[in-house]
Design a protein that fits this description.
Layout: H1 2-23, H2 32-36, H3 39-42, H4 47-74, H5 78-98
Helix pairs in contact: 1-4, 4-5
Amino acid sequence: MLTDITACGIAAGAFAALGVLLVNGKCLTLITAYFAATPKQREAYDKVALGRFAGGLMFFFAGCMLLLMVGIVLDIRWISTAVTVLATGGGLSAAIYANTGNRFRRQ
């Protein structure tokens, strides 16, 4: 049990730290589409909006990990299923949102 809590805490801390970096516009090369783009293509992206979106997504996953930690500490089994559904749904929703409407392209 202590190992599970520690692992969730480390994962939540890593997600939160990455979220802080991305919200501040650092480490944008960790985003696959931005990393794979040529320098000319990178100029077409709104770096501030892309960083805020990816950072917010990292904070969402950090919250999911904290919720999972609460479920482990309180020994409530259904929370792990709820967190799995929440994280999967959130990730899919974020992927759909990010890939529709050219949201992160400069106008």
